[in-house]
Each structure stands twice: as C-alpha cells, then as structure tokens.
Description:
Number of domains: 1
Largest sheet: none
Oligomer: single chain
Distance between the termini: 27 Å
Amino acid sequence: MNWQAISVIYKSEMLRTRNTLLQSIASPVISTCLYFVVFGSAIGSRIQTVGDIDGQGGVSYGVFIVPGLMMLSLLTQSISNASFGIYFPKFTGTIYEILSAPISFLEVIIGFVGAAATKSLIIGTIILITASFFVDLKIAHPLWMLSFFILTCVTFSLFGFIIGMWADNFEKLQLIPLLVITPLVFLGGSFYTIDMLPPLWQKISLLNPVLYLISGFRWSFFEISDVNHATSLLMVLAFLFICLGIVWWMFRSGYKLRQ
C-alpha cells in the first residue's frame, strides 16, 4: 500500500476545503440553523411530541428532526465533495498524472473518498454540536450512532465518486444530487415518521432506501424507528459494497478515463 501517494491526494483535497471554508463548512451549518428556526420553532411549537411508534414513546419535534437534518447534510455533502473531488482532475486533465503514477485504484479511492468522508464527518459533528444549542439532545446508543455516521459518510462519498467519474459536465455533476438524492431524503422521513402517512404511502415509503438510513440513525438517538435498526445497517452495508463493485469496474474497464 502506497501510503505516501494516499497522503498526497488526501492532503490536497483537504487543502481545497481549507481554502473554501465558507462554502464547505459554514454554508451547511447556517442552513441547518435555518431549518431549526423554521421547522423546530415555527412548526415544532405546534407539535407536542412525535415518533410514538408502537408505544416506543415520543420526543419533542425539535429534537426529533436532528438526525434527519444531519442525514440531509451528510448525504448531500458527501456526494458533493467526492464528485467534485474526482471530476475537477478530469476537467483539468490532471487525472492522467494520477493514473500514470505507480499507485493502484484502491489507493486513489482511499485518498479521494477518505478526504470527502472526513469533510462530511467534520460537518456532521459541527451540526450535532450546533443542534445541542437549540435542543436538549441525548444519544441512546453512541456506538450505533457512530457506526451509521461513519458508514453513511464513506458510502455516499463512494457514490459521489461514481457520479464524478460518470459526469462529463457540471450539469451532470449536480443532476443526481438535486433531482434524486435531495427528494429521497425529504421523502425518507427526515421531518416526520411514516406512521403519519396513509397506509398506501407507508408501503411506498418502504421502497425508499434513504428511509432506512434515517430510521436507523434516528433509532441510535431515541430508540424510535420506522424500520428495524439492524435492517437499516444491512442496507447501508449492501449499498457500500455495491458502490465498491461499481468503482472497481470503472477503473478496470477504464470507463470515462481512457478518453
């Protein structure tokens, strides 16, 4: 394993984040604060408790939306950071310097995806700290929370890496995050439980893969979930291995790299 090459790629990506702190760090945190003001205060003041599923007990709405807000930021930021991280070298042509260097595709992935996941972890941690100023937040299962936290960042950074490899212009780079991921997050129980929906829409919601991420992550906080937390973890792991397989195929076949 060429750790020096991994370190160079990783440090280069992290340096880009340091040079764009307002866009990379401050912007998602400010957006989260606005969500708390709008949803937590305006809507939360009219909802006493939420999440009382099968007698599991409910929590205040302001507390309830914290995991959903974190997942919204983690998914969008992980995809954005990773996709732009690999697309920009393709756009400038410096990707060929990386491909011609004596490093494997695994080392390239660790460098780019590791940096994107680290940025998302930093943003998620800041959001969690920021949320604690708005609500009295307690984590019932810290280890489960960390597992979902880290796996989500890594998995969707890999997914973002795939989007960056696939995209051949800036419009395509934003297509999937804006038209697919963001709607799935909003419809995946970020701000509500599917128990609030009519029976037909509850069944339809179970087809949304993001629901399992948010549900499992929320369970680690409050022991409240729409689906079993173990099933949620298996869904994350399954998506992780699917992304790894796709990235391996892209490098092996030279997809969008030999042009």
